[in-house]
């Protein structure tokens, strides 16, 4: 079943067309990796899916419903959760309070359910020892974990991950990938933008590559990574 479908989605900022007629379908349970050079339009594409930006042309469908004009909180409550490239916790609040807030307002959960969800997600993401710490004082790895945990607390059906492994050491990235594999095993559909390619390849079922806002390639990870144009544009390798 197709969970997310983009139909000719375009977005411009002034004279700059950041996404240009992107058409894409994501199957329920799939992990789709998004690749592209800096400035290719990847995060803008996420913003169009999550509702953080409005499309200029085209249509966004989620679970068979046209959500093109829905606002971000409406899409979140419908089941689209996301992380941001730069973690954005409520720094003055504890880790636990951040998760309860996400569950209540992003997931529309009642207080008791939100507390239960927060406890569950703390365990899933390895954040239980930090539950009562102010979110603003966490290490980068734990801020990344919290960013993921806040998205999970909304109980998403579709999870958007924006460079969640960026800035992590190899062992830290391995911990994060292990958690994402457990999330995948629970049936959560994921779209993951990532420059840490080996981390992405360990999880992705399919890759979608964009350049200057347009589709460059799409297919299995092996086929895409061996594509001469992808190697030239993304990795700077002449075929």
Record keyword descriptors for this entry.
four-stranded antiparallel β-sheet; 26% strand; Rossmann fold; 10 strands; 9 helices; six-stranded mixed β-sheet; 239 residues; 37% helix; 2 domains; globular; alpha/beta
Could you describe the 3D structure shown?
With 239 residues, the chain is of the alpha/beta class. The protein contains nine helices and ten strands. The chain has two domains: 1-79 and 156-239, P-loop containing nucleotide triphosphate hydrolases (Rossmann fold, 3-Layer(aba) Sandwich); 88-155, no CATH class. It has helices spanning 42-50, 72-78, 95-106, 111-124, 140-153, 170-185, 197-201, 221-225, 228-233; strands spanning 2-13, 16-27, 31-35, 57-62, 65-66, 80-82, 158-162, 189-193, 206-211, 214-219. The strands form two sheets. Strands 6-7-8-3-9-10 form a six-stranded mixed β-sheet, with helices on both faces. Helix 6 links the parallel strand 7 (158-162) and strand 8 (189-193). Helix 3 crosses helix 4 (111-124), helix 3 runs parallel beside helix 5 and helix 4 (111-124) packs across helix 5.
Q: What does the secondary structure layout of this molecule look like, with pairings?
A:
Layout: E1 2-13, E2 16-27, E3 31-35, H1 42-50, E4 57-62, E5 65-66, H2 72-78, E6 80-82, H3 95-106, H4 111-124, H5 140-153, E7 158-162, H6 170-185, E8 189-193, H7 197-201, E9 206-211, E10 214-219, H8 221-225, H9 228-233
Parallel strand pairs: 3-8, 3-9, 6-7, 7-8
Antiparallel strand pairs: 1-2, 1-4, 4-5, 9-10
Helix pairs in contact: 3-4, 3-5, 4-5
